[in-house]
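Ticket #4471: complex job returned nothing on first submit. Input attached below:
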Amino acid sequence: MRVDPNISSLLNIGIQGTEQALNTAVQQVASGERVNVPSDDPAAAAANLQSLAGSANVDRYTQNGDAVLSQAQMADSALSNVVSELNQAITLGTQGADGSMTNENRAAIATQVQSVLSEVISQANTTFNGASLFAGTAGTVPAFATDSTSPTGYSYQGNSGVNSAAIGDNLQVNVNVPGDQIFSNPNGDVLGSLSQLISALGSGTTTDIGDAVNAVRSALTNVSQQRVVYAGVVNQVNAQESYLSQETISLSGQQQSLTGVDMSVAVSNLTQAQIAHSTILAAAAKVLPTSLLDYLN
Amino acid sequence: MVGLNGSLSIATEALGAQTAALEVANNNIANANTPGYSRQVVSLSSAALVQQGMTVDEGVSYQGFTSVRDSVLDMAINAATSDQGSLTAQSTLLTQINSAFSGTATGIGASLSTLFSDISALSTTPTDPSARQTVLSDANALADAFHQGAAALSNASSAANQQVSAAVAQVNQLSQQIAALNGQIAETNGGDAGALTDQRDELTTQLAQLIGVSTTQTGGTPTLTTTNGSPLVIGDTSYALQVTTAPDGAAHVLDAQGNDITDALSGGTIGGAITARDNAIPALSQQLDALASQFGSAMNSAQAEGYDLNGNPGTAMFAVPTTGSAAAGISVALTSGSQIAASSDGSSGSSGNVNALLAVQSSDLPSGASPTDTYANLVGNIGFAGSQVNSNLTATTSSLQQLTSQQDSESGVSIDEETANLIRYQQAYSAAARVISTINDMYGMLMNMSLGES
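Support reply: We reran it on our side without changes. The output follows.
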């Protein structure tokens, strides 16, 4: 049988083949990527997109967690101020309940309790990013505003809405506690008990003052209970964020294994392609110049 | 008749025959690198004639030359060339689409993630105007990403149309050249047309690269048709294909009688471009459009469940066109960040509806998968279409290389072989020349003998 006399075209095909393999190997080593376009590995490209979306979700859970954390910490520090204000009111009230107090002294104490009330109102109207922290979901409206018709002189402008934020695939945390639950809760009414104390101090009846101080005490208990809600949120977010940072690492590992190259494999591929390429070039150099004509003279 | 004169004429014929053989070898060497050239072999036969019941050898007779070719192999090469042309055209178009959908940090997938991430930020800051504005610009970026995806697919379709138009023009030109060659070949009256046939075969292979062809020989008339039977060349007449543009902008191919043969064509650049344009690309466009329109309506229904910053019921976030491509036409219907329906009860600080908006990301669309998964499937399908065509192309190319090598082993010129032949013919020529000089000597002796006697 006659053989293909066109050795050069056979060699060209071979050289093109090894050159292609060498290019691929060099590109993979240089870029560290195995999948540059979806057709390189369609299944991996699709899975990579899903994994990237997963990473984006983890990132947004973390961002939400951070936002919830700063909001909860701000609320907690406001409530901690309220707690010390209430403690001061209790001290003042206890002094006022003392039978040796004159009416003038009680009036002076009442003025001090009045300033405690104003301070509590200002804490209750704390804003975060322009929105009232304790106005439920009412937004930019201050939680409490002066109201002459109200026995306390203030009325709640907010609502009972509670926002929640997702910090996990099926994990929501409540972001706020409505202000009326904290400051005008029937089980411990901060504003009510403070105004009760002010008017009791005005009337000068020691039993009334004692009752009012007890009311402030139960208001303090209520505020402390509501603070626990925020502390719980902070704990939950912290726990979730350490889980999320693990998740980020495992997802990016997944993406790396889907579309990245294993460097040891890539480098050994490169060496292999290099050897194949130089072999065929050496073969070409040996074979191409040979012709019968060389031997005739 | 045996005698000196007879020997002399045998030797003279031998000189002529070896010269002719040398000429054939010479021609082979000259065309060693001519594409499509089939090597020629000289046919010599010993001449003899029968006289008075005796066979008398009359030396050599030159019978011309024959081109060495294998028509079965030629047909196989044409078929493989058509496949390769078709797959090359498809591969070019699908590679274009693959690059457009290769982005992981940009594109529809990334835009979806960014949109949901920024909507999610509203759950803690529903009243923040800049957070709302960010969501609005994310929605616009997503609409742009859809537009770009749709444009990548429609650009590939337009490229296919251009390929069809350009290739049809080339087909018509090649058909004319082949018809002209057929006319010249017919004038050789069945002899070996050698170079002309080589040229025609080479042109036919070029034609096969552009469009699937089949060659038949009907009653001595060579016929070249497309694979579905529309004539391109019959004998020395060529039939031009035409291109018309359909209302949707698609290039359609008509045969010489004006019949639309677009769907019947297969193979070659034309067949490949039509396959990609009419099968692969529409399937992908359909998925992209379904994603755009289903995602748009899902977001719109989620908007409708809530209230905007001013307490008004949520309005549609996206305007999705009901006719034409949804992905190309989707646009953001909201004009202000305050219109994003984050609130579930109408109070401005509520972010209760953010979860409804976010639920779109993880809920199944009517297509049966979440938006992200639907997009990942689409990219997977784009990748599969590309990798399938590419691996078929690699296989076809290597089988074509094998066939070509087989054809070369049959018809290719070997310089070594021709060199050896040259030496053979040269030696035979020298030997015949020696015969003539020997006879000349013999005549001389004869002459001298007669002169000596007188």
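Chain B has two domains: 4-68+413-453, 74-281+352-401. Closing as resolved unless it happens again.
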